User: Fold these one by one.
Assistant:
Number 1:
Amino acid sequence: MGAPDVQEVPAVTTTSRAVRRKSRPAAPPDPARPFLPTTEQIRLLDPAGTPLPAHPDYPAPPVETLVELYRRMVLGRRFDLQATALTKQGRLAVYPSARGQEACQVGAILALRDEDWVFPTYRESMALTARGIDPVEVLTLLRGDWHCGYDPAVRRTAPQCTPLATQCVHAAGLAYGEAYQGRDTVALAFLGDGATSEGDFHEGVNFAAVFKAPVVYFIQNNEYAISVPLSRQTAAPSLAYKGVGYGVPSERVDGNDPVAVLAVLTRAVAHARAGHGPFLVEAHTYRMEPHTNADDAARYRDADEVASWQDRDPVVRLETYLRDRGALDDTTVARVAAQAEEYAAALRERMHDKPTVDPLTLFDHVYAEPTPQLVEQREQVRAELAADQEGAG
């Protein structure tokens, strides 16, 4: 029996390999690419205040806008220092300082129009004063006088939110409602790094993405959720990547670079206002003071870490840049500092006045129509107050 036929396999030539390579289908585009943030933080000034090469997507704001940004940052820092002092004097029950985060606090406000809405956390007192809200009204909540010292509808500013991330859902709902009625209002929700671990954050971002609600979610990543470092909160390359899974474009920015913060937020707001849906921005910054006056930050971070951030001071950084541009001089800097001192002195004087508090107002606005149980509780308090007055008489 003869040997079986053997088919000879043709040799693969260099030419045939090239043909095969050419005939392979191109790799499909990465569907996540439009939503991914830059690998490096957007930065337009170095820590010394020297301008860096222009960024094609984030042009620097006009100089006159940056001068106003500087003025409000100086006033904001002085307000923050005064509020901290008032806490030590017992004039405030608690105060969460935002010192070190001035570029984020004020830059976000300048990126908005007056008719836009702000959804702050408990740390945004500086941002609210930058929005033009009376500082005594801002501190009403932290003083324990009332739930909110200003009229949210008039100021287009929601009450400061203490529960983490609930404002993310509120912002999405309001923004969707405004768009539904044909208005081009944008809502900006402030949140810290810890809030991105809460369910309300994910629900709010997802709703906003699905319904294209014009919201900017602005994460101030100040390295700690109270005492929990970022490394214990997420394994993602950065918090900005949390937007990708919901189809939300995201960006990272140096939160201590005031020029970059305003440039990035200006584009994010324009994106939302144009009807393209939400935008997520993560600003990398640092909280110089403890979480609140009740916190001992030395338990979880050392002095060297805090000192290393002193060289990235956003106020000094912007001042240096504007001086080099000829937009600031000693006279202007001194005038702004004097305004800040007058602002703090007026706040200090007004906060010395003790407010008149009616305990029965605790029961106001709990429900649109008070429940029988609430009415009963209110009457019990009323009776106790009357008995105390009779006893004192």
Note: The mean pLDDT is 92.
Number 2:
Amino acid sequence: MVFSSLLFVFAFFTPHLVVYFFAPKEKKNLVLLVSSLIFYAWGGPKYLLLLMLETFISWYFALKMKDSKKSKLYMIVACICLLGLLAIFKYTGFFLNNLRFFIHWPSKVPTIILPIGISFYTFQLLSYVVDVYRKEVTPQEDYWKLLLYSSLFHQCIAGPIVRYETVQNEIDNRKVSFNDVAYGFRRFSIGLAKKAILANSCASITDTLLPGGIDGIHGQSALGIWLAMICYMLQIYLDFSAYSDMAIGMGRMIGFHYLENFNYPYIAKSVQDFWRRWHISLSSFFRDYVYIPLGGNRVSQKKWIRNMFVVWFLTGMWHGASWNYILWGLYYLCFLLLEKFYIKDRIPDKWKHVYTLIVIFFGWIIFKYSDLSQLGAVLLGMFGIGSAGFYSMDVKTVFLSNIFFLVFSMLACTTLGRSLHKYLLKTSNKNDVVMVLYSIFDAVLPFVLMLISVLALLGNSYNPFLYFQF
């Protein structure tokens, strides 16, 4: 069940809110837990047991750590269990396939279905266990409340990676004002529109131009490949940030304040700046639980490079059990090292944004294709090698038919909307007429966005969500 579906919006989330708001205060967490477990079980009931097991392991060993001289041992055991389960479900097939390629063993590789959201909730529970060991949070005495934290349907299957310290107090003590509900609804409607209208349109263009397979790549013109990959670049940001917008909005409606996960990454002027803005919860996780414990930048140059290698290798591995994700992580490592030791201020300020977008663009091509032969075909085809020429009328038709969606998608990746909102708010404080118009606009906009999104979903069965695979 994805957020950008009519089933979720009207058959799950709306009834959930009604029951939640009418439930007694002492029963609200129970309602939220039941809803979260139903939501997760919808994608595979048997994997709910895995989520409950990982939560039990974290809860049990966190309690054992309290005032214990063996707290470090308990923390290590808990981390090994959590990472071990993640490795079994996510990486067994990858490692066995590579063994089979090199040494022709085993003869048959078992197919293991990846549980939805395992990468996200495993990292959340890892952060909880380590933070308890560091005495940065107090262990949760009630198992069901920790299960509520790990299974919160707002974010358990695709992030953001919410740390326990962020919601620790709000699990038991949260207050909801009218402004919280209004902001949450507005944020949810923006996310839904971003996904249902813009991201899905970009995805449709990409899949129309590159329907899949090596033949589809060779049959497309160079310009068509460029357009397809630009749309993919737009799609992956709009898709994932939309999910975070909806998660943050739903959390705010009931009093949870999740941290921002994106800060307009496509306006970055360096690769380092991009990673401060993209998937912030993941970047900060690797910083606080891998990079800094390894010594961070307070070590020799060689060890710092080692630390960076470990972080970016793991960043690639986290995204998927495939060589292209590892290459993608190391690709960014190379540019971060270049920026540190060579590029620095050699690029003029007016070209820094262009340079960063080019690096990001080719990074997404690596990210998209797990089949390395297809990856090579796309990279060569973009320059007319192995493609069906440089231009075709079909590409022109697709472009002109979707030009408005593309323009709005590009604008949605910038701060224009936020800047315009701030400008109108500032102007309204000085002019009563503008204040009335602004108030009406601000109140009506979420409902208009919801209506357009619902119409888009009614008329479009194409509704992929990229980050469910992680």
Note: DSSP finds 20 helices and no strands in the chain.
Number 3:
Amino acid sequence: MDNVITLAIETSCDETSVSVLKNGRQVLSNVIASQIQQHKIFGGVVPEVASRKHIENINQVINKALLEANVTFNEVTHVATTYGPGLVGALLVGLSAAKAIAYALDIPLNGVNHIEGHIYANFIEDINLEPPFLSLVVSGGHTHLILMKDYGVYEIIGKTRDDAAGEAFDKIARALGLSYPGGPEIDRLAKEGNKDAISFPRAYLEEGSYDFSFSGLKSAVLNHLNSKRMKGENINRADIAASFQEAVVEVLTEKAIACGKEMGINTICLAGGVAANSRLRNMLSKRCQEESIILKYPSIKLSTDNAAMIGCAGCYKYIKGFKSELDLNAIPNLKIGEG
């Protein structure tokens, strides 16, 4: 690989991000324009608002990323962009910009699966990391255990049957009156609480299953809150946050460890926005150390949505000779392994 320059675009939800990478793993720039303040007043992401902000931001973010990388359009080898899963309007903004650049410069375009991008963030963090490894993907819309056999080759070992872990975090955060985004707020509040104060259920499902389920836990927390309110009893939000978080993290950790041991995989990589959760990192680090399993996880900036991870995944598709056509469309419910 000889100086492959990737321009990558990520607009799947509420961050407009553009990155420039050299040879897939060297990040020359990674610009992120967040919309948190715009959506905070609504308590969550409003798709129409997100799309409009992406349109406002995209050109200036592209220019800033090129400027920071000290790279011109003519030096770009290929373009990578998220085309799913995500909010369809938001996805179309980044996809349209990427298509225009690829067409104007007559260079290859690669559509990237957003969830695969999260896995590839680990390759940026550790330039020596190579597959195979087991990835625990935990985000707002996904909770998966995925065996990455090779670049672009995956086997889904387990997935959520209902709510994703990040989705449960956001719903409980709203129930506790915390601001958006809910995941970091619960992480912060939980540090002030007692994780053993309330015994919330852990859904391990049937024996040998590596699937996840968080709807029962979510209901248990909501029922606890409603019962307290009906009885006029004091609600200790910190204890509830800590106890809820512990129930989620414990299941994620134990299933990942059990899966890794059964499959004889000695490396586990965390991926997705919830990978930034401090309790998950701490518990999984401790359990991996006890079981002599190597744990990898990205920095906080690479855990949340960003274009650098998309560029890394796109670069490896480019190296393998893959190329997307210019009629590539956004697929809001794209599955892992389909892109």
Note: The longest helix spans residues 237-263.
